[in-house]
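Methods — Computational structure assignment.
A single polypeptide chain was analysed. Its primary sequence is given first, followed by the predicted tertiary structure written as structure tokens.
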Amino acid sequence: MSHEACAALVEKADPLRFRVAMAAPVGARRILFPLYAFNIEVARAPWVTQEAMIAEMRLQWWRDALEEIALGKPLRRHEVLDALAACLDTEGAQCLDGLIAARRWDIYKDPFEDRDHFDAYINATSGHLMWTAARLLGSAEEEVVRDFSYGVGIANIFQAVPALLSQGRQPVIDPSDAGIAALAAQGLARLARASAARRKVSKASAPALVAGYHARPVLQKVQPMPGRVLADALDTNPARDSLRFLNVSLRGWWR
């Protein structure tokens, strides 16, 4: 029942990725649902408590669990972990460990140290998840997936900015209009570079990238009107969002 538990968790906590997984071939779902459920568990760990030590312990629990997978040790009991272990290899476990390490930033209220720190966070939280999914599903060139996932990560950060600011976090290096517009432009450039190299991502790996179907419209809204980010004005029309998802699902993740 572990796969069903993962699907139920994703359906409740991450409707966007649930939609993506359900649109994928049945075999791909057995990889996507455990990965997405794992991501939910890790992403929410810093937010379920005000005690930094407890949050650190929750993240460490998952790091230890990934080490068990990587080393082939007996696993602790957890429905998400059971399903994850069934599809994850050593390389994937090590990659996802980097995702957990990056999530430690979410526990505290310190700003990013510099642009390199910010980019590393995006590459770990967005890139490691998408790359692991794409690699497990089929063949793909890592640089293409990471270009695409960077643009997706920037779009996700923009959508989360108001909530993060309300919690005392500083989610972007330069919150000025010029800084946000420049970041949106860079995200769009990375999406465009990935799209130009789309033939380097196999059909089997493509469902992993469909999870970023929303990124381009978000960044296109932000670049000319960066004030939308702080104003929390990035909501997407549900009907238009559904049409875009259908288009991307049928015609390709680069649309």
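Note: The chain has two domains: 1-108, 109-255.
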